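User: Hey, quick favor. My workstation is busy. Could you predict this chain's structure for me?
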Amino acid sequence: MHVLGIDAGGTKTVCLLADEKGTVLADARGGGANLQSVGELEVEKVLHGVMDAVLANCDVRPAAICLGIAGVDRPSDAATVHSIMRRIGSNTRTLVVNDALVALEAGAGEGPGVVLVAGTGSIAYGRNGAEQAARAGGWGYLLGDEGGGFWIGRAALSAVVRQFDGRGPSTRLTELVLTQMGLTSPTELIHEIYYRDLHRHAIAGLAALVQGAAEAGDAVAGHILSRAGTELAAAAASVITRLGMRGDAFPVILAGGIFRGIPSLATDVSQRLSEVAPRASARLLEVEPAIGAVRLALAAARGPVTVPAYI
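Assistant: No problem, here it is.
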């Protein structure tokens, strides 16, 4: 028996082919496939590409597919993704879930737990022992995604223009941001951001500069990261509280490139959450989130899978 586990996030898509023991036999990677931000046709293109690539040299037919995809939480979203899979030509049993669930599955297994994802965007998701789920965040870069890479990068840009106007304090971020973007003055940001329509992933890439400036003692950068930690911890705390888990022992999985790129943020969030749920233990996700999709696909191949219902 073979299965496909797919983690389709806002930045990248990972597809794994695994056997009945969960051993990964092949993998393929593609671009982001957030249904809400890139649209149905782009999602179809990305999924078609990674599935073709991972099966190209393997004469197997997957018994089941689990697709964890960003921006999918409503029945209408799942129906759209199932339609995409049918157009691709796959009539294999397919389980469609939010990508936060596959990250939780990868890091915590089947039991209760919370995952806090901070990549380009951000979301907190959790499930309790009663198989109830809750989420906070994941509203996208225009409505939320506080503490994610885009949010941090945008805060850095705001700090640059505020210094230039005299509305904010001096910050090393001005020199760092202008150098990285190849600009000579903050006034050039208007053309770069609005007329060139700078991709949000490029703005999210500025988060690394905030980390560097903060480590060098820049107060503005330090304040941005402090606010990011506050927002991310608040999202996880909301999930923990609504699921009635404040007194429970459970893992909090920290996933996404921001926690790896800014280690101080992982430490900050962990400390904040220890005050909310003292028995919880926070740790970085050490495997590909798509491993969680493989596990769910194996479960789907063996029988019906119950996805935790939102409270």
